[in-house]
């Protein structure tokens, strides 16, 4: 949550900061602001409520020649979105400015202490305490003041600060919030995410907890908590920058939905060698695999849904008992995790606070934890025993789409791998399933080639107050994800149920004003789901069906049918999810919503 950026170099900073904030806007868009030295011994701070565009317009005509500065795009935690609460925050002298991502848990006690010493606070934020602490400790060396300041802080922080007396320097520190720094030899940058640094350098440093970095033009010096210089660990980024452009699409969500065939292909490619599934990065010996007696999958939101798909496949193929849990619950329970449990942590961003806490808990119980993530160098990769990367490339739209399909492709590989290594499936079965998985991108392309039925379905949904999604087996999960997408971007209430559950309560909600989306693709439970559709129709609700091409039974009864090509049931979550993503987007657009920036949400949830 919240994006921070900083630039120091030879060019004018304001445009670079605003450009960086635009790339970080997915992290929050309640307000945005920048701070730069004003050339007269002070600092100029400009903030606007709302998206970065408002800030861009504000600074456009302003005379801000400084070649150093910091910026912030906010997802409000402490204090409502307002210009006063917007970052950067200043100290009493107006010489220090700070941007922060995270939560300072002991801010109230620190603020009381600082107030008692005469410091005057203007905002309701936790961040402002950091500016006043820097003021208290500053004796001519901003890095030394930062070291003393962070020693007082409890909670999570990624902080960047500037001081008017050092107009060519940025000091940065972090704990449990991502910070990446880099330099191209003349310009040095800091950001919450490498996307805002990539235009300058592909070799970056992900700061470790407790480390500080001092940025000057062309130099990034990393220090440990005691101020000793540390040899920076460079990571090379190989993402392509095209991902940051809309490339002719009206929004990132549509672009990312259309990227899915490529994403699934890339995620799967190279993992079948000599008729064996290879996942070298899992780093598991045959002995380790034989010892696994249960799998635990943890994640949040869409990643949790990919975990539900994983459970279906791991249990079906590898026959290992598998549990799936939302990380925010897992972390506060005493889950039955032992050294023979394999834990798979799913997180697109690799920075989700609840998932990271769950990973730590699982490891403390002796389990091996493997991360499945999209973001190189993200925190989860450093906290886990091994990492499998999904090859989604940068996902900008706040609503996850391509990363979900990439996660499903990845967990499908894990399920095949475990099944083969446990001897539950033979090579012929594994190779045949792998080839079917590899065929799904072509089926997605086919679905994307004609979306007329989806538009028709969106007309049925757009004016309702509530919608229901039903499916069975793997497609109950598809429905959970489809309903989540609709809620997130169209602000329509939607609930998803395993179709058989309907008659145990939710059917009471049905009437002609509540449309139902039913996934009735070819599967061993298709007939049962069709009966549920009849029950729904008998209550007067309209039915939008996702069905397998050629299924005339469904056409006869449903109000609208979206056909998808035939696939084996175990792969239908990949194909059936695509029309549900498009449906949510289309409904959202018809309702006038901004699909890439849904209200109240942020892409990376780094707070509890
Ligand atoms: C939904 C969505 C969220 C994320 C969730 C976990 O579209 O994007 O539900 O899936 O916040 O995020 P990651 O996967 O980054 O841990």
Description:
- It is a single chain.
- The strands form 5 sheets. Strands 3-2-4-1-10-9-11-15 form an 8-stranded antiparallel β-sheet, with helices on one face. A 7-stranded antiparallel β-sheet has the order 5-6-7-8-12-13-14. A 5-stranded parallel β-sheet has the order 19-18-20-21-22, sandwiched between helices.
- A hairpin with a 4-residue loop joins strand 9 and strand 10.
- It contains 19 helices and 27 strands.
- The chain is globular and about 75 Å long.
- Helix 16 (474-490) runs parallel beside helix 19.
- It binds fructose -6-phosphate.
- The site of fructose -6-phosphate has 15 residues, from helix 9 and helix 16.
- The site of fructose -6-phosphate (F6R) has 15 residues, from helix 9 and helix 16.
Percent of sequence in beta strands: 15-25%
Number of contiguous helices: 19
Largest sheet: 8 strands, antiparallel
Helix proportion of residues, in percent?
Answer: 25-40%
Cofactors and ligands: fructose -6-phosphate
Instruction: Indicate the structural class.
Output: alpha/beta
Q: Tell me the number of strands.
A: 27
Provide the low-confidence segments as ranges: none
């Amino acid at each position: 949550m919240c994006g921070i950026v900083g630039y120091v170099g030879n060019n004018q900073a304001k445009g670079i900061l605003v450009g960086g904030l635009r790339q970080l806007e997915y992290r929050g868009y309640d307000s945005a602001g920048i701070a730069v030295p004003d050339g007269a011994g002070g600092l100029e701070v400009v903030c606007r409520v709302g998206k970065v565009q408002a800030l861009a317009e504000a600074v456009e005509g302003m005379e801000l020649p400084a070649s150093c500065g910091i910026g912030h795009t906010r997802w409000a935690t402490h204090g409502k979105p307002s210009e006063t609460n917007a970052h950067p925050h200043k100290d009493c002298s107006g010489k220090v400015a700070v941007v922060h991502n995270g939560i300072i848990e002991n801010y109230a006690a620190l603020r009381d202490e600082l107030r008692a010493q005469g410091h005057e606070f203007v905002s309701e934020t936790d961040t402002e305490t950091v500016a006043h602490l820097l003021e208290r400790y500053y004796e001519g060396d901003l890095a030394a003041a930062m070291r003393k300041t962070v020693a007082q802080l409890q909670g999570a922080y990624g902080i960047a600060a500037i001081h008017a007396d050092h107009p060519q320097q940025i000091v940065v520190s972090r704990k449990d919030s991502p910070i990446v720094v880099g330099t191209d030899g003349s310009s040095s940058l800091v950001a919450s995410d490498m996307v805002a640094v990539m235009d300058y350098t592909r070799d970056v440093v992900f700061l470790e907890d407790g480390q500080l970095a001092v940025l000057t033009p062309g130099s990034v010096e990393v220090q440990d908590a005691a101020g000793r210089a540390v040899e920076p660990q460079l990571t090379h980024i190989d993402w392509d920058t095209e991902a940051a452009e809309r490339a002719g699409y009206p929004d990132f969500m549509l672009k990312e939905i259309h990227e899915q065939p490529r994403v699934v292909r890339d995620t799967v490619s190279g993992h079948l060698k000599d008729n064996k599934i290879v996942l070298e990065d899992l780093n598991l010996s045959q002995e380790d695999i034989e010892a696994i007696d249960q799998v635990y999958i943890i994640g949040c939101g869409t990643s949790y849904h990919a975990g539900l798909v994983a459970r279906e496949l791991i249990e079906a193929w590898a026959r290992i008992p598998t549990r799936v849990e939302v990380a925010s619950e897992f972390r506060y329970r005493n889950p039955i995790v032992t050294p023979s449990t394999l834990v798979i942590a799913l997180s697109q961003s690799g920075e989700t606070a609840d998932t990271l806490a769950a990973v730590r808990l699982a490891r403390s119980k002796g389990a091996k934890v493997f991360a499945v993530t999209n973001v190189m160098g993200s925190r989860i990769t450093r906290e886990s025993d091994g990492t499998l990367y999904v090859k989604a490339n940068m996902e900008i739209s706040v609503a996850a789409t391509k990363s979900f399909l990439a996660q499903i492709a990845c967990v499908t590989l894990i399920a095949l791998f475990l099944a083969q290594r446990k001897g539950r499936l033979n090579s012929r079965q594994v190779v045949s399933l792998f080839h079917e998985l590899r065929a799904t991108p072509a089926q997605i392309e086919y679905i994307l080639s004609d979306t007329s039925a989806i538009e028709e379905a969106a007309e049925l949904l757009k004016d309702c107050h509530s919608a229901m999604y039903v499916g069975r087996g793997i497609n109950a999960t598809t429905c959970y994800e489809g309903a989540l997408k609709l809620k997130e971007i169209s602000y329509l209430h939607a609930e998803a149920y395993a179709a058989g559950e309907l008659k145990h309560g939710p059917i009471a909600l049905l009437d002609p004003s509540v449309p139902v989306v039913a996934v009735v693709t070819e599967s061993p439970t298709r007939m049962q789901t069709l009966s549920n559709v009849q029950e729904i129709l008998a209550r007067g609700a309209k039915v939008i069906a996702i069905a397998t091409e050629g299924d005339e039974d469904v056409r006869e009864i449903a109000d609208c049918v979206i056909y998808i090509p035939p696939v084996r049931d175990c792969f239908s979550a990949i194909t059936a999810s695509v029309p549900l993503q498009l449906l949510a987007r289309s409904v959202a657009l018809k309702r006038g919503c901004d699909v890439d920036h849904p209200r109240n949400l942020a892409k990376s949830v780094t707070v509890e």
